């Protein structure tokens, strides 16, 4: 589809598609099959396939990936496991053109997340988008605006929000179990070894549509430095581990503290101390975020080597209150302790991924965004918190931020990192 035709299509059919799905859901009831497409199949896309296929009344109709080798392999695996072969596409725009697709799972690299979500909303599709919801703060806000304008259901892939144990933990925080909660820590102590060096430039394999893979990012020569996983550690495509694994924990910090806004003061320091390799993002990053009006703060630490835990937490959160503290370990357990170290309430349940997909489909059927455990607004704020820490690290200083207008105060250099230069036709628009 040409860009001109795409604009016409999105303008004239988005609202119709949205109304059509809502009408079908109302007329035919909860037994109607929801048809899903999964975009991006190398990593988390496999979880999306399992999540959709494990949810009652959902059928994966389309698999999409710009790498034909990955696409063929996933289609083969899918047919072997589920007994039928879904349609396949290498261009996500062709998926959006289809009227038989109701929802899409966005499991692409980070730099595609917001635009893929915006285009899906404009085409009348509901979206389950992987973390981080955005690659930068500007496009995260546009994603929120698109979901609202086109009345779409958008779920952020932070599955801990569907953990019964973690939801119980948040209720305890709200009800004063550890007193006034004044600080949260997010911890990402993951074993991230050297990715070594790859030669540049290289030649893209004929089976990979390199233009589509790059999408909104500026064009460059293909490199094995970034395809297919190590893009996480390169600024044009990823956001380092604070914007990778860390989004679960930035989201948990905000959720547990009851914050729905961004901080006013940010400072971050870190660097590469272990490996001489191709990573651009820091191996170690320590960030502090201040919310003076709420008298709360967040500390966040990324560490590339699994050493000690803190309070039993290696990947998770610690909440500090006037009467004790609470730990969130991983995605599905918590413990609490009084000021004198005595154990309080604790809880643990199973893997919440399936519950998170089920929650998304429930909201799709009911057309009620209020039912979502991980609504699009939280996708923006959780991702933006990580972006703010990265920006402070990249400019090398403490930053003052206006959370209402989502701009830095008197800092054009930092403001420039709130967005990016997009290339045609993969442009995140100012007006969605």
Q: CATH class of the largest domain, please?
A: Alpha Beta
Note the total helix count. 12
Binned strand content: 15-25%
CATH superfamily of the largest domain: Dihydrodipicolinate Reductase, domain 2
- Oligomer status: single chain
Let me know the average pLDDT. Answer: 93
Structure description:
- It is globular, with a radius of gyration of 21 Å.
- The protein starts with a helix and ends in a 17-residue tail after the last helix.
- 48% of the residues are buried.
- Strands 14-13-12-11-7-10-9-8-15-16 form a 10-stranded mixed beta sheet.
- It has 2 domains: 3-160 and 355-376, 3-Layer(aba) Sandwich (Rossmann fold), CATH 3.40.50; 164-196 and 223-348 and 383-410, Dihydrodipicolinate Reductase, domain 2 (2-Layer Sandwich), CATH 3.30.360.
- Helix 5 (113-122) runs parallel beside helix 6 and helix 9 crosses helix 11.
- The protein is built from 12 helices and 16 strands.
- By secondary structure, it is of the alpha/beta class.
């Amino acid at each position: 589809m040409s860009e001109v035709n795409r604009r016409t299509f999105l303008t004239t059919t988005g609202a119709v598609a949205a109304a059509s799905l809502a009408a079908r859901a109302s007329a035919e009831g909860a037994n109607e099959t929801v048809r899903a497409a999964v975009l991006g199949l190398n990593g988390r896309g496999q979880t999306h396939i399992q999540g959709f296929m494990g949810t009652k009344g959902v059928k994966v109709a389309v698999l999409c990936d710009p790498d034909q080798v990955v696409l063929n392999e996933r289609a083969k695996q899918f047919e072997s496991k589920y007994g039928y072969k879904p349609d396949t596409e290498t261009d996500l725009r062709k998926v959006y053109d289809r009227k038989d697709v109701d929802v899409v799972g966005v499991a692409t690299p980070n730099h595609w997340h917001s635009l893929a979500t915006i285009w899906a909303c404009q085409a009348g599709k509901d979206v389950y988008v992987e973390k981080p919801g955005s690659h930068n703060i500007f496009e995260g806000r546009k994603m929120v605006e698109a979901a609202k304008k086109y009345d779409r259901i958008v779920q952020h892939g932070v599955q801990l929000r569907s953990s019964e144990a973690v939801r119980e933990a948040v209720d305890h925080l709200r009800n004063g179990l550890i007193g006034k909660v004044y600080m949260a820590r997010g911890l990402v102590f993951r074993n991230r070894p050297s990715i070594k060096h790859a030669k540049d430039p290289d030649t893209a394999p004929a089976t990979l549509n390199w233009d589509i893979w790059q999408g909104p990012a500026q064009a460059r020569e293909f490199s094995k430095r970034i395809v297919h996983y190590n893009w996480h550690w390169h600024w044009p495509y990823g956001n380092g581990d604070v914007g990778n694994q860390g989004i679960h924990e930035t989201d948990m910090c905000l959720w547990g503290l009851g914050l729905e806004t961004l901080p006013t003061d940010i400072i971050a320091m870190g660097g590469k101390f272990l490996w001489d390799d191709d990573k651009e993002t820091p191996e170690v990053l320590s960030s502090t975020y201040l919310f003076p009006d709420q008298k709360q703060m967040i500390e966040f630490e990324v560490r590339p080597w699994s050493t000690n835990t803190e309070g039993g937490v290696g990947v998770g959160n610690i909440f500090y209150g006037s009467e004790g503290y609470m730990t969130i370990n991983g995605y599905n357990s918590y413990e609490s302790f009084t000021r004198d170290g005595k154990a309080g309430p604790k809880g643990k349940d199973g893997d919440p991924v399936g519950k998170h997909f089920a929650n998304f489909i429930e909201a799709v059927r009911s057309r009620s965004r209020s039912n979502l455990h991980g609504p699009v607004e939280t996708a923006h704020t959780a991702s933006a918190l990580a972006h703010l820490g990265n920006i402070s690290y990249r400019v090398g200083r403490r930053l003052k931020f206006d959370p209402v207008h989502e701009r830095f105060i008197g800092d054009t250099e930092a403001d420039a990192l709130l967005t990016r230069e997009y290339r045609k036709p993969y442009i995140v628009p100012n007006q969605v």
